[in-house]
Amino acid sequence: MTSVLNVLHVIVCFFLILVVLLQQGRGGGLGSSFGGGAQVFGGRGAGNFMTRLTAICAAIFMLTSMSLAYLSSAGDRELKQFETQQGK
């Protein structure tokens, strides 16, 4: 389970970096350097699509981060419970 989450986390991380870099900001962004500013999604459609895609990727990234943190602390909880039982 942890290895699947790790792989998904890394893939989402790279995709999130790519999506953020391709967004067109005030300076034109990295997306305008590829293709000379050709509009693939229309005038405002690209901004809405990229914003929505960034939010989805960020949400998945946060969920995988919290899941991995919870799973990694499971060993600490088991160790603490074991030490408590041994102390009795």
UniProtKB/TrEMBL annotation:
Pfam families: SecG. The chain crosses the membrane at residues 51-71. The keyword Transport applies. Keywords: Cell membrane, Membrane, Protein transport, Translocation, Transmembrane, Transmembrane helix, Transport. One of its GO terms (cellular component) is plasma membrane. It is a multi-pass membrane protein. GO terms for molecular function: protein-transporting ATPase activity. It is found in: Cell membrane. One of its GO terms (biological process) is protein secretion. Involved in protein export. Participates in an early event of protein translocation. Belongs to the SecG family. This is Protein-export membrane protein SecG.
